[in-house]
Amino acid sequence: WVLLAAAAWAGAGDGSDPPGVTQWPPAIQALSGQTVTLNCSFAARGVTVKTWLKDGAALDLSSPRYSGRVAQADAQTFRARGDATIHLSNLSVCDSGRYVCRVQPLGSAAALGRGTQVTVTHSCEKPGSS
Q1: Best CATH choice for the domain 2-121 from the list 3.60.21.10, 2.60.40.10, 2.40.10.10, 3.40.1190.20
Q2: Which SUPFAM superfamilies does this entry report, sorted A to Z (predicted)?
Q3: Which DSSP symbol is given to 20?
């Protein structure tokens, strides 16, 4: 597994601010066909919604594009552990982009991670080569 994400804290955690969201590392390079893990954790209670954004647009993880390629924690783990991590498998060049984790607690503003820039290259190319 290739590890993804970017460290970020948002909100003061006093109940009135958005929750603290941590995403790491800030950038990753992967080969087509590999699996990556986009880590996202949050410190707030009562978070009811998580959304992953790619290049500013919400990902529809149930769409045919992602069908069978995304694994994530069940709803209970998501809420109990503050874990919004996803695993994206069988990468293609089209999966390249900036991924941002967004969580929203009940009655509060949404909070965003700082994002992870994912660069996927063809498996015949080595990451970092041009």
Answers
A1: 2.60.40.10
A2: Immunoglobulin (SSF48726)
A3: P
